Amino acid sequence: MTTETSVMRSEIGEQPAALRRTLEALLPQTAEVAALAGKTRQVLFVARGSSDNAAVYGSYLLQAHSGRLATLASPSIATVYGAEVDLSGVLAVAISQSGRTEEIVDTMNWAARCGARTISVTNGDDSPLARGADVALLTRAGDELAVPATKTYTAQLAALAVLALGLGADLDEAELRAVPDAIEETLAAPTDALDEIVARLAGVSGAVVSGRGMAFSTALETALKLKEACYLHAMGLSYADLLHGPLAVVDAQTPALLVAANSGPTLPGTVALAERVRAADAPVYAIGGGSALAKSSDLAVDVPDLPEWLAPISLIVPAQLITERLARAKGFDPDAPRSLNKVTQTS
């Protein structure tokens, strides 16, 4: 594997600072979020790509801790079908790294016309998404040059954690403020297990990435990164969905990469899945899950202890490192995957 440093790797290393800036800017806005959302009952997330994976985290977080129903929008209902939907009592949260993806901007504006209050989460401070929302949560990731999202993605997760606090979630702000330190610890940790996972993934063409609950977003984002930067046929699945049939695709040449917080209600099920996969003579690699998941896996990357509601912000970092190293090991440029642009326009 080449030792050349990519822009993607540099931007992975910038995440602790980006998160500190983002939290410092956004935590004072919790009262503004609360005032806007006071007359709403449920949340509708509008996003695509990595931002959609961030929205999955937001959906689980809000439903588990704020008592609000949260769902993911189908933007084509607005942009293709032009349907009119009663969105009174809805808080529409539009997420876009650039804030310039026309489909997301148009869908947020459509939601407002249908009666929703709107919040944008974007790194584009002078973008149409930021200007058009009732409240803009502007992340402070700085310019992101590599096409695969890293620091903008974790900044979005931090913004959604702030959103949860603003919506009345009974969660500890001090725990959120500790996340940048946890990611610094992850970046400084030994890489032996991570390097071995990369070496083994270099010899396969596909993988299944699985998690559940809060960690499901990490599974989806990890699979996306492996697809877009390493051209690996990676499927991101909830372990509940995996057990309903697709488990049959896991074999000696299609390993399972499992992600989990070090504690929480979904950890026992993740451990049971690891044991079942190993019983089928398929490789199991783990990110997080503590000693329980490590014992049931062939290789495991440890992560710092964070409460389950914040673990996805940390869990994705080893997956980003694996993606960057695997891309280079396979002779690909992780900064500029083929057929991708930094801003993707869809209709």
Please provide a written account of the structure.
Residues 33-174, 197-337 form the SIS domain. GO terms for molecular function: carbohydrate derivative binding. It is a single chain. By secondary structure, this protein is an alpha/beta fold. The mean pLDDT is 94. 47% of the residues lie in helices and 15% in strands. The protein has helices at 7-13, 15-26, 30-37, 49-65, 76-79, 102-113, 128-132, 151-166, 173-177, 179-188, 192-201, 216-230, 239-242, 267-279, 290-295, 311-329, and strands at 42-46, 69-72, 90-96, 117-122, 135-138, 206-211, 233-238, 256-260, 284-288, 299-301. The longest helix is centred in the last third of the chain and has 19 residues, at 311-329. The strands form 2 sheets. The chain has a 5-stranded parallel beta sheet with strand order 2-1-3-4-5, sandwiched between helices. It has 16 helices and 10 strands. Helix 6 links the parallel strand 3 (90-96) and strand 4. It is globular, with a radius of gyration of 19 Å. The chain folds into 2 domains: 7-177, 3-Layer(aba) Sandwich (Rossmann fold); 182-329, Rossmann fold (3-Layer(aba) Sandwich), CATH 3.40.50.10490.
